[in-house]
Specification:
Radius of gyration: 19 Å
Helix content: 10-25%
Number of strands: 24
CATH topology of the largest domain: Collagenase (Catalytic Domain)
Strand content: 35-45%
CATH class of the largest domain: Alpha Beta
Oligomer: single chain
Distance between the termini: 48 Å
Largest sheet: 7 strands, mixed
Shape: globular
CATH superfamily of the largest domain: Collagenase (Catalytic Domain)
Order of helices and strands: EEEEEEHEEEEEEHEEHHEEEEEEEEEE
Length: 333
Amino acid sequence: MTAAQRRVTLVCLIALLMLASRPAAAYLNLSEDVRGQVVRLKWNTTPRWFASNRSIPRVSASDFQAAVARAFATWQAVPTASLSLQFVGFTSAAPFEDDGISVLGFESRPELERVLGATDFVIDTVTGEIVESDIFFNSAFEWSVAPGGTSAAFDLQSVATHEIGHFLGLGHSALGETETNPEGGRRVLASGAVMFPIAFGRGNTADRELQPDDIAGISDLYPASAFRARTGVLRGRVRRNGQPVFGAHVIAFNPATGESIGGFALGADGDFQIAGLTPGPHVVRVEPLDDADVESFFDRGVDTNFAVTFYERLFVAPAGGVGEHIDVGVRPK
């Protein structure tokens, strides 16, 4: 690394993912404080990635590369995003080495008993550009590349799809529902995004497919030419007794399509912005971020002392613009 670069690591837990970077806007996007300004982390050049040549039982190096390539292709296929990704080849290098290349591969870390994998970045601290990103998958767990999944193993393509979302610059979505496990941690009951921080269990392949929140997030970060012209933006703020509410989760639900896209009130005045909405009426719901560990999303505390609140009117998202600025007043629990 040069003096103008810094390494950032995201850890993917079985139950949830831990985010160490500072969030910037909806979905979340990862961001960095660059010379006093918050800049969204993203690639400004075509990401070039290598696959480790290390095999594990039941997953050969070629099996690994094929599953990861399918996960990359899932993101690249989003029609409203402009992404170009390049597989370079196999390497004997391991993830997280300071070698200047982006490597994805298996590493055995049995002491990390709840860690499925992690995503690591090298970023340019002047521009906020991602210049390298590695992902490791913990071979202390059983993995599967079977087309329909395997009940005793974690689905490699599903976990890779989530981790590649981080690789591209996305943080976590809060669209989902969990319950506490008797043995500790949380179990996912429903998920509205691949980037939801609670991982599905062994054998589940649902996270191979992106959901509307994921699509809106990646399209907002890497927009195709027509994305902004065909979608609308919701802006507003969340206040309680006239004071801003930091970290409130805001959901825009389209009753015509059944799509939900979420964001967070992160501004100094409780401001939020959600882009990528299908034009038309939306129900706006504001809720506390209390269904997962806050550290999965932010490196600082958030305000959860308020009741779930619906905005009093339907919000109409325009095509190619910003709709009515809304103020949502919430009350203490």
